# Entry
Amino acid sequence: MKILKIKAREILDSRGIPTIEADVWTKIGIGRASVPSGKSRGKYEAVELRDNEKRFLGKGVLKAVANINGVIARNLVGIDCRKQSRIDNKLIKLDGTENKSRLGANAILAVSIATARIGALASGKELYEYLGKGKKLPIPCFNIINGGKHAGNNLAFQEYMIIPIRFPCFKDRLQAGSEIYYTLKKILEKKYGKKAINVGDEGGFAPPLAKVEMPLKLLFQAIKEAGYENKVKIGLDCAANEFFKNGRYIIDNKSFTTNQLIDFYVELTNKYPIISIEDPFAQDEFKAFAALRKKIGKEVMIVGDDLLATNPKRIKKAIKLKSCSCLLLKPNQIGTVTEAINAGKLAKKAGWKIMISHRSGETNDPFIADLAVALEAEFIKAGAPCRGERLAKYNRLLRIEEKI
Ligand code: PGA
Ligand code: ZN
# Structure
């Protein structure tokens, strides 16, 4: 089942910004994959190679495409597509840098996922079966109010998620997510008018609110009105790196020290049914994460995104310092399927939970749904239950649930 040919192209993502799609050819067919792109990117992520030329305002990816069609294709043609770790190791070697800056993590990941897809087909397996032994569906975390860099409002916190925990199956969780989403829409329109129901990059509403507490009130109200009190909880992605300025955190026009912010989070978790907080502090604040975990870690999951960047070195450091209790796993932060799976295993071994994540700029590729099942990740976040590129993941999970 040798790789015969690899061909990549520039396509556009959900924001209309260029990204990569790669096709890996074998005699039984083509494995195709495309990769997402983040906006609130951490500085420890693998490098997304962009052209920085005039076309697409610098955002073109023709250099990365050329890397796939040239050096990567030349080196992978002839290898059995079912040898995923061998192929990923070869990609890592070909790049030769610590952060995949030579060939681009976007180029490398597109090929890595496309290979996995055709490898699964060649093995007569579904992708999730091919990647792991998992048989459990993740709990979806629906981001239904958008702030931060993802929305045209002044909310400091980036994501307000609803997490349907007490349900027998994924299908029912998705239904609850959709019903709460539309209940919230009604509440928002009634309270603030039509301007409040525009949506942000991840399909959540982006109401013109300025105080970070208000969306929590609205979410709680929507959960109750939809009839899901006690069954659906709340999660936050503060993406605090984005409001960290000169050693202070700027929220609602107020300036917080780390300790003041810890107290604020404690207050919010006492008032609202919050069970998860992602990136409560800036991307180098391992100790602040640990201090918060110590205070509220029994009831609330502390999730590391920009802090960890799906990077084994940073995950190990956070395990040692007890900074987190959940890994946010974004394949494009690290760059290959094998490394993404290994990052998940590392977190699991430490007793952490895993939340598999999309990016704010997405394509219709549902790879993360399969990855979540393969790893038996407890959670997945793929945005609101709205917009095609978000539903591509949730609908894939519906199909997987039918099979297992
Ligand atoms: P991003 O946001 O994809 O824009 O980085 C997602 C997140 O911070 O979790
Ligand atoms: Zn995040």
Remarks:
- The chain has a mean pLDDT of 97.
